[in-house]
Amino acid sequence: MFKCLIGPDKTEYIIHSSLLASQSKVLDRLVNGQMKEALEGEVHWAEVDTETFIRFSQFAYTGDYYEAKFQPRQGSDCFPPPPSPTQSKAVPHTNEETNGPSGTSSPAPGAVNPVPVFARSALQAHSVVRPPGSGSWSGGERVGETALKEKKNLLWAKFKSLHADKGFVGPIPMNSSGDDTAELLLSHARVYVFAECYDIANLKSLSLRKLRQTLEHFQMFDEAVYDVIQLINYCYENTMAGADAEDMRSLLCMFSACHMEKLWSNKDFQELVQTCGEFSQGLITQLLHRLD
């Protein structure tokens, strides 16, 4: 057995040494090498919080981990009933999966009350037969608007294809306007940072896949924008730019580019773009795919 002392208070956890060592070469040296930790049979991870270590332990023993739960948002009067077992295990197919991310003409993933398909078709049919007048768009402008919409949808499709699901997909959390989603999003990011620090490749992949699944079905309410900002801040404060084109930073930049219209309406997000140059560069790189 190997003793792990977690956090500044040195909360004690015990894990099988062979299991810990099998997670990565870095941890194998920690357990079986000549370092102080190996000789004493214990390690103090002061920078790791207990919840993240518990999730790592769950992964080590089962190959999966449980993310944090939604909490009622402070000051919110919205307390929706918990989802039924069948509802939590299957994400309903919604119009945004076909029509792409938020914008001026297509519903966002998780948009509230999306326009029904039949109503949208009727509006589109009406616009086709209406002759262009002095105040209407020309045919060239319509073609350009359609092309931009298609490129936005292509970027969203690319985002959904990142870190593809492998086998069974468990329940995917679905947030409401009364949910504080920050801890759930950050729980995946903290696991990713831990996995990156100790080079646990499978855990990195799992945390990215779980976060992508959550963001794919994320309801971008006004209050939830602040939770996304917290997630981006944490990521850029605790990770380094690397050669990996599909790391946590790239995932968040692509997600932000897909939801740029909604995010940019928030002054805190604008300040984040102004103050975090690395994020701005990654965001612009992804936005170019909507214009290229």
UniProtKB/TrEMBL annotation:
Residues 97-107 have a biased composition (Polar residues). InterPro entries: SKP1/BTB/POZ_sf. Residues 72-111 are annotated as: Disordered. This is BTB domain-containing protein. It comes from Bionectria ochroleuca.
